[in-house]
Amino acid sequence: MHIGLVGLGKMGGNMRTRMRDGGVTVVGFDRNPDVSDVGSLEELVEALPSPKVVWVMVPAGDPTRETVRQLGELLGEGDLVVDGGNSKYTDDQLNAELLGAKGIGFVDCGVSGGVWGLQNGYALMCGGSDEDVAKVQPAFDALKPDEGGFVHAGKKPGAGHFAKMVHNGIEYAMMQSYAEGWELLEKVDLVDNVTEVFDSWRSGTVIRSWLLDLLVAAVEEDPHLDKIAGYAEDSGEGRWTVEAAIENAVPMHVIAASLFARFTSRQDDSPAMKAIAAMRNQFGGHAVHTEPPVGGDANPG
Prior knowledge:
Organism: Nocardioides lianchengensis
Order of helices and strands: EHEHEHEHEHEHEHHHHHH
Shape: elongated
Protein name: 6-phosphogluconate dehydrogenase
Family: Belongs to the 6-phosphogluconate dehydrogenase family.
Strand order of the largest sheet: 2-1-3-4-5-6-7
GO molecular function, one term: phosphogluconate dehydrogenase (decarboxylating) activity
Number of domains: 3
Oligomer: single chain
Low-confidence stretches: none
Domain 6-phosphogluconate dehydrogenase C-terminal: 160-293
Radius of gyration: 24 Å
Structural class: alpha/beta
Helix content: 40-55%
């Protein structure tokens, strides 16, 4: 199989290597000429035999939309575009319509595996018609782990990215649970070997996972995580998961809370917590960490 790959960053570059190792001929394009195989998107398309398949691995949002638009002008009927980035599933529906009007197929594919994917394989969740997915199957087979790790999530555009979105929402909640447990073990002067406790959970327990493995690796290197700031970004997929839950009236207590916890991490001094401290002082004379507000130095009750 021949395939074009647009975007050769941390994920895309490793995916190019894994596909080549799996027997797929890959022509890669990136704005960084040091890693690119060709000098332009036009050259990439020209280098591919027909029907042409181009996999897009650029940041979600405008960069992906613009790349898909450009490919729509360069490709022809019977060709195919794969969006393997972290696009919102609603974008897939628009992109599929845009390309479909020109007879160009579209497959959306959620990709999980991070920097370890080159070695371990990538989990792939794709959406699109049976015919279009079949065109990309050799690339999927090269990228996925030796066993499992691939699913054709649905035939409608967006099915793959919707599945990946929910996957990431669950990931938010799992990470938050591990993090809160670690903080409690660190806080209470009772357990001597917190890192060893987490390490022991990696075998035989019902909460073992790859995320737990990664946390243990991190605390083995920095036992109290002193080198890391308590600030966590979000990729956007946690937000989209909560938005979809609201739109479909699905209760999502834990994933929503884990998303909001990341927002809290970005505040040096929470305005909401200031208001709570002030109210507690007003009604109950509870201690505050600054001078009490007027009227708040005595319990009115």
